[in-house]
Design brief:
The protein is α/β, with parallel strands linked by helices and 239 residues long. The protein has one domain: P-loop containing nucleotide triphosphate hydrolases (Rossmann fold, 3-Layer(aba) Sandwich), CATH 3.40.50. It is built from nine helices and five strands; from the N terminus they run E-H-E-H-H-E-H-H-E-H-H-E-H-H. The longest helix has 25 residues, at 68-92.
């Protein structure tokens, strides 16, 4: 076995709450694993024991009056730990890392939604993340009103096997329609600025249609051989 495995790939999924990111990430992971590729699935904020504690603090509606810069700093605290503990080691070992959100979320939500602007976000990314960039970012573009309503319904529903009485993850979903409009506009601005890295996928269709588009993007951009014969996988697990 080679002492120096080939570097893995880092693929991030971005979009508004309720756009179907988590579902699509899992569907892509299933297809890649069926091709005998090693996949690590993770998320932000979170991804590590420390990061998950920060996530509970950041997303809980009980965390009120959090200053936008404090919110941004907590996001990057979670991210710096995540890169060190999970993302860099996995890529170094040759795995494909699929991450639900990364720095683009901070630029869109805190930079755009909270009106902090892009520069503080990008400066923190350079300082704390070594300016680490994904090989590919899939931006799932969806209607802000529809997405957030879906996210609110999801978080109100009690998920089997999960105790939701202590914590909820509704804090961002309480924001205004204007807030999510700014978030979407920020995402689209990033896609325009970095077209080689970020690909916009229309997430308004069925989960199966969206999945097919994402598989094609991964195949084209990263030259990962993904078989189209796994259509049964692409239709399963949608929610």
């Amino acid at each position: 076995m080679s002492a120096h495995p080939q570097r893995g790939k880092f693929i991030t999924f971005e979009g508004l709450d309720g756009c179907g990111k988590s579902t699509q990430l899992e569907k892509l992971a299933a297809v890649l694993r069926a091709q005998h590729l090693s996949v690590v699935v993770t998320r932000e904020p979170g991804g590590t024991p420390t990061g998950e504690k920060i996530r509970r603090l950041l997303l809980d509606t009980g965390t009120s009056a959090l200053a936008p810069l404090a919110e941004l700093a907590l996001m990057f605290a979670s991210r710096a730990q995540h890169i060190k503990e999970v993302i860099q080691p996995a890529i170094g070992e040759g795995h494909i890392v699929l991450c639900d959100r990364f720095t683009d979320s901070s630029e869109a939500y805190q930079g755009g939604g909270r009106r902090l602007g892009s520069e503080p976000v990008l400066a923190l990314h350079r300082a704390l993340c070594g300016d680490m960039q994904p090989d590919l970012t899939v931006l799932m573009d969806s209607d802000p009103v529809m997405s957030v309503e879906r996210a609110r319904r999801r978080n109100k529903a009690s998920t089997p096997g999960h105790k939701r009485s202590e914590h909820d993850e509704n804090r961002f979903e309480q924001e205004s329609r204007a807030f999510f409009g700014r978030v979407r506009n920020s995402y689209l601005a990033i896609a325009q600025r970095e077209p080689q890295r970020m690909v916009v996928v229309n997430a308004r269709g069925t989960p199966g249609e969206t999945h097919k588009h994402i598989v094609e993007v991964v195949r084209r951009k990263l030259k990962i051989a993904v078989s189209t014969q796994l259509s049964a996988l692409s239709r399963s697990g949608s929610r």
